[in-house]
Specification:
The protein has 331 residues and is of the alpha/beta class. It contains 14 helices and nine strands. Strands 1, 2, 3, 4, 5, 6, 7, 8 and 9 form a nine-stranded mixed sheet that branches. The protein binds pantoate (PAF). The site of pantoate (PAF) has 10 residues, from loops.
Length: 331
C-alpha cells in the first residue's frame, strides 16, 4: 500500500521513538550502582582515591557501573562499614589497615611503630611479596582486597604541650584507633590511650575529654584538626596504608572482564591516594603552621624505640621475627 508523505513521517517518528525507548530501557537496566564509602571528605586523599577508582571503572565499562560516594563516615565508623561490606549492603570501601586488623589480625604487622624507614621503603614492602601475601588473607575473612592505598606516616597532635622525648607522653590522654598494636605502643610510652571510632574524635577533642590524637598529615589537614589542637609533633611513628576493598557478594557476580576493570580501577585509586599524600606531605606543615599550630620534629627515633622495647617483644611473639626481619630487609 502506498503511503503519503504525512504517513511516512509518522511511521518514521514512531520508529525513532520506539528505538529511543528501547535504548533508554536497555541503558537503565544495564547500569549497576556501586556504593563506595570512606571516612573523610571528598576533597581528601580518600576522596581522590575513590574518584580515580570510579572514573577508571566507569570509563572502562562504558558506564555500566556508576559509583555513588558516601564520604565523611556517612555509612558509620570504619568498623561498621566493613561489617556492611561483608554483608553486602555496601559494595566498595577505602579503609585504613588500622581498622582492618580487627578483621585480619595478620595485617597488624604494618602498624608496628618505626618499622618502615621512609615512605619509599613502605611502598616497596606493600607492593612486594609481603604486601601481596597480606592481601591474600582477606578473602577467607569475607573481604575482597584489591589494592593498597595510603594515608602517609602518622604523627601526634595534642592540646597540652610539645612532645619531644618519650617522657612527654606521660599522662597524655591520646585517642588511638581501635587497634591493639597502637594501644600497646601508647601504653608502653606512658600515655593513656583512649580507643575511639573516628566520627567521635573531633567532638572529643573539642570537649577536652581527650588531649590528643595521632594521624597522618593527610587527615590532620583534611579534618582541620588545627581548629582543635595546638601542638603537632612530626613523629612518623607508624605508617598507615589503606585498602581498596569490595564486597564478596558483589565481586562473585562480576564477569572476569569486570573483575579486571575493578582491579585496574583500584590500582588507579591507590596511585591517586599516594600522589595526594606526597602533595600534602610537602605542603601540609606550612598549612598547619599558618593555621596556628606549633610544630616540632622527632629526628632521633632511638629513645622512643628504646622505651618501646617491651612492646617490640610482644609484637615479635604476635607476628613472628621472620616477618619483621623480612620487612626490615626489604630494600
Ligand atoms: O584515625 C583513624 O581512625 C583513621 O586514620 C581515619 C581518620 C578514620 C582514616 O582511615
Amino acid at each position: 500500500m502506498a503511503m503519503n508523505a504525512t504517513t511516512r513521517v509518522r511511521v518514521w517518528l514512531g520508529s525513532v521513538a520506539a528505538a529511543c525507548a528501547l535504548l533508554t530501557g536497555a541503558g537503565a537496566q544495564a547500569q549497576t550502582e556501586v556504593k563506595i564509602g570512606y571516612a573523610l571528605a571528598v576533597n581528601s586523599h580518600y576522596g581522590a582515591g575513590a574518584q580515580a577508582w570510579a572514573d577508571s571503572v566507569e570509563k572502562s565499562t562504558a558506564g555500566r557501573y556508576k559509583f555513588k560516594h558516601f564520604p565523611a563516615s556517612a555509612l558509620g565508623g570504619e568498623r561498621e562499614s566493613i561489617e556492611g561490606l561483608q554483608l553486602g549492603t555496601v559494595q566498595a570501601l577505602i579503609v585504613s589497615t588500622g581498622t582492618l586488623s580487627n578483621f585480619v589480625p595478620e595485617v597488624g604487622v604494618v602498624d608496628v611503630p618505626f618499622l618502615f624507614r621512609d615512605i619509599g621503603h613502605a611502598r616497596r614492602v606493600m607492593d612486594g611479596p609481603v604486601g601481596q601475601d597480606l592481601i591474600k588473607k582477606f578473602q577467607p575473612r569475607g573481604i575482597v582486597a584489591l589494592a593498597w592505598g595510603e594515608q602517609g606516616f602518622r604523627h601526634l597532635t595534642n592540646a597540652k604541650h610539645a612532645v619531644a622525648a618519650p617522657d612527654d607522653f606521660k599522662g597524655l590522654k591520646i585517642r588511638t584507633m581501635e587497634n591493639p598494636v597502637h594501644i600497646t605502643a601508647f601504653k608502653t610510652l606512658g600515655a593513656a590511650p583512649t580507643p575511639m571510632a573516628w566520627p567521635e574524635v573531633t567532638g572529643a577533642l573539642q570537649q577536652g575529654t581527650i588531649d590528643g590524637q595521632e594521624n597522618p598529615l593527610s587527615v590532620i589537614v583534611s579534618a582541620k584538626l588545627s581548629d582543635v589542637q595546638k601542638y603537632l609533633t612530626l613523629s612518623s611513628h607508624v605508617y598507615a596504608p589503606t585498602l581498596l576493598i569490595v564486597s564478596p557478594r558483589f565481586w562473585n557476580k562480576l564477569s572476569d572482564a569486570d573483575k579486571a576493570a575493578f582491579l585496574e580501577g583500584a590500582k588507579a585509586g591507590s596511585a591517586a591516594m599516594r600522589a595526594f599524600v606526597d602533595d600534602v606531605d610537602a605542603k601540609g606543615v606550612a598549612t598547619l603552621k599558618a593555621a596556628g599550630m606549633q610544630v616540632n620534629t622527632i629526628t632521633d627515633k632511638t629513645p622512643f624505640q628504646k622505651t618501646l622495647a617491651p612492646a617490640y617483644a610482644q609484637y615479635e611473639t604476635k607476628f613472628g621475627k621472620e616477618l619483621l626481619d623480612r620487612i626490615a630487609a626489604t630494600q
